[in-house]
Specification:
The protein is α/β, with parallel strands linked by helices. The termini are far apart. The chain is 28% helix and 20% strand. 20% of the residues are buried. Helix 1 links the parallel strand 1 and strand 2 (28-32).
Length: 97
Amino acid sequence: MGRRVLVVDDDSLVLEVTVSMLEELGCDVLQAHSGNDALEKIADDPSIEILITDINKRNGIGTTRSQLSRPTPCHPVIMTREWQPRISVDPQANPEI
């Protein structure tokens, strides 16, 4: 069995895709939909080895960001951020559209 990873994201689609990719790589993956949910899982499961978290502020993830990112010997943290390009529908602004 691979590493035990906790993935935190309030976007269900992003969470599902991330979990799926990690499972294909052989990881044992837990999911959390909020920062508070993640903190509970970390407290309840000492076997979690890696934390991957969305740092957006929706759903309490941003409010617990500092708690989730505290370095500990058993919880390396990877922080991610959703990025969406802004595209204008005005053909003058973006002639390639």
